[in-house]
Amino acid sequence: MKNIKRSWAEPYKMKMVELLKMTNPAQRKKALKEAGYNTFLLRSDDVYIDLLTDSGTSAMSDRQWAGMMMGDEAYAGSRNFYHLEEVVKDVYGYKYLIPTHQGRGAENILSKILIKKGDIIPGNMYFTTTRLHQELAGGKFEDIIIDEAHDPENEFPFKGNVDLNKLEKLIKKHGAEKIPYVCMATSVNMAGGQPISIKNLKELRALTKKHGIRVIHDMTRVAENAYFIQQREKGYAHKTIKEIVKEINSYTDGATMSAKKDALVNIGGFLAVNEWDVFEEARNMVVVYEGLHTYGGLAGRDMEAMAIGIGESVSDGHMKARVGQVIYLGEKMASYGVPIVKPIGGHGIFVDAIKFLPHMPQDNFPAQTLAAEIYLDSGVRTMERGIVSAGRKTNGENYFPKLELVRFTIPRRVYTQAHMDVIAESAARVYDRRIKINGMK
Predict the structure, then answer these.
(1) Within 10 Å of residue 175's Cβ, how many Cβ atoms?
(2) Angle, nearest 10°, between helix axes 103-114 and 128-136?
């Protein structure tokens, strides 16, 4: 009896359920064709298990729903704003808060304030909206993530780390005055939800401080990153998720946040900074693009749900179950031979479409094709993270990213282990007939 494994279980019970629509292959084929073979254009009513994104798709707790009934919808000075401000200071450690309708609203404001034409913005891999806002402000993104991040089979535990040599070369080439900030993401989405280590963050902070360069944190999935630090980095096994999150943030000067992920809400985000001058300018600019500085495009009830959700997100029990479900799915997929990004990340499983469909050229969109095939097989909706997501150059030519992935993103507190089994079995069935799959144009 002493050697019996102790399983984890969800730290919640269900109080309400949403009934799902079951479809047959003919219905899915029709729906996919009408959507132009683009899973983003499918109607959610035609989807059985929705893994398109973990953004805004979490199940809120009874406490969050109760908090929404306490919404103060005053146009200025809502009590919910001051509660959110207090929670952000306590949990995340930043001094000043500007709420926005979601993360990209914060990216827009930050880019307009800090970036001028010709600037270089280094980052540990791009994210689509982040890079676009930087480019629209006149800047140019430069990838400084470690090389291991571009290798799906490399099992280095912190593939989100910044390559400090790459950063130093950029500083030497362009000058520190041309680099308004380093954009540092925790749990790097495009790399497969891969974390950055505290050791690397400390080294990054020391280098940027030496050159007078800010570190701006994309903290959308910071609690998931903290979980991996707790599990993998020496000296952190006995620290809480909340303690690690606060330490991560202490090495940065500000942050953009899409609260629709870690913070367990369906809408919302914010910009948080430590510099008064940046805060003052952002507080004025948010009025133009989002709303008054004490609501930033959100209802009071949404800010209250966010404040409560932030507290729940840094619970050790919640994070163990959240990442545990992702790991369960990844290990099941791998047992069927499905090629996935390793090590398994925090918010989803990323299937290596190039290895899955080795006969298909990248300009035939293997990841987009695979996402369509998964939907046809089971009604499971996933999304492409490859050549399509990378966009096109100004001359119309494709970017060809090294990673061509299909993201199976797991919403928080939504699906059961049985759903994970259905998903893994669908991926396995498609893998078994992979040689018969053709590409797209």
Answers:
(1) 11
(2) 30
Residue 189 and residue 281 share a domain: yes
CATH number at residue 50: 3.90.1150.10
Phi, psi of 409 (to 5 degrees): -90, 130
Per-residue model confidence as pLDDT tens digits over 81-127: 999 999 999 999 999 999 999 999 999 999 999 999 999 999 999 88
Residue 161 lies in a domain: yes
The crossing angle, in degrees rounded to 10, of helices 417-432 and 366-378 is 120
- The total of structural domains in the chain comes to 2
Bridge-partner residues for 98, per DSSP?
271
Domain-terminating residue out of 280, 298, 313: 313
DSSP state of 90: I
- Per residue in 270-315, pLDDT (tens digit) is 999 999 999 999 999 999 999 999 999 999 999 999 999 999 999 9
Q: Give the pLDDT of residue 1.
A: 56
The Cα 355–Cα 366 span in angstroms is: 10
Residue 75 lies in a domain: yes
Write out pLDDT tens, residues 223-282: 999 999 999 999 999 999 999 999 999 999 999 999 999 999 999 999 999 999 999 999
Percent of the chain with pLDDT over 70: 100
Average model confidence (pLDDT) across the chain: 95
- What pLDDT band is residue 398 in, cutting at 50, 70 and 90? confident
The answer to whether residues 362 and 401 touch, using CB atoms and an 8 Å cutoff, is: no
Query: Whole domain around residue 322: which residue ranges?
Result: 25-54+316-436
217, β-bridge pairs: 184, 255
| End residue of a domain, out of 313, 334, 359 | 313
* SS3 assignment, position 142: strand
DSSP state of 340: B
The pLDDT value given to residue 221: 97
DSSP structure class, residue 61: P
Parallel/antiparallel/unpaired status of strands 49-50 and 380-381: parallel
DSSP string, 245-303: HHHHHHT-SEEEEETTSTT--SS-EEEEES-HHHHHHHHHHHHHHTS-TTTTT--HHHH
H or E segment to which residue 209 belongs: helix 198-211
Give every CB contact of residue 149 below 8 A, 6+ residues apart in sequence: 124, 125, 159, 160, 161, 188, 191, 194
Residue 132 phi, psi (nearest 5): -65, -45
Beta carbons within 8 Å of 191's beta carbon, 6+ residues apart: 124, 125, 145, 149, 150, 159, 160, 341, 345, 403
